[in-house]
Amino acid sequence: MDCPEAELSILIEDDDGIANLNSKYLCRKGPTNVIAFPIRDGNSPENDYYLLGDVVISVETAQREANDSGAGFDKRFAELLIHGILHLLGYDHEKSRQDTEKMEKKTSELLKIFDKSSFTSS
């Protein structure tokens, strides 16, 4: 992913906490599963290059989604973390179908890196 020395922070929230962030920063109502807050953009100073930003995951929403899909909490959490990190790296799924497909392909590639035997149903 071309960021071997990159840093990011991960915040685990409940639904109320992520709903507050969603409202305050994205003007969206209610909880969501993951929010990414990139630090860098095209105008960032070079010394900020390795600071990617923050990924916030709602553990309550992740658990509900894992229960609904039957995939297990560990797998769903990994999917959300990868999704957030890809957003920090500039991937987007809201602009076009082509961008969505590109992000989905990268997500699948990265999920294959995880040892599938470590995903257990919760």
What does this structure look like?
With 122 residues, the protein is α+β, with helices and mostly antiparallel strands. It has a single domain (7-118), classed as Collagenase (Catalytic Domain) (3-Layer(aba) Sandwich), CATH 3.40.390.30. The chain has 4 helices and 3 strands; from the N terminus they run E-H-E-E-H-H-H. The protein has helices at residues 15-26, 59-69, 73-88, 97-113; strands at residues 7-13, 34-38, 51-58. The protein has a 3-stranded mixed β-sheet. The longest helix is centred in the C-terminal third of the chain and has 17 residues, at 97-113. 25% of the residues are buried. The model has no long low-confidence stretch (mean pLDDT 86).
How do the strands and helices of this protein lay out in sequence?
Blueprint: E1 7-13, H1 15-26, E2 34-38, E3 51-58, H2 59-69, H3 73-88, H4 97-113
Parallel strand pairs: 1-3
Antiparallel strand pairs: 2-3
Question: How would you concisely characterize the structure shown here?
Answer:
With 122 residues, this protein is α+β, with helices and mostly antiparallel strands. Helix content is 46%, strand content 16%. It has a three-stranded mixed beta sheet.
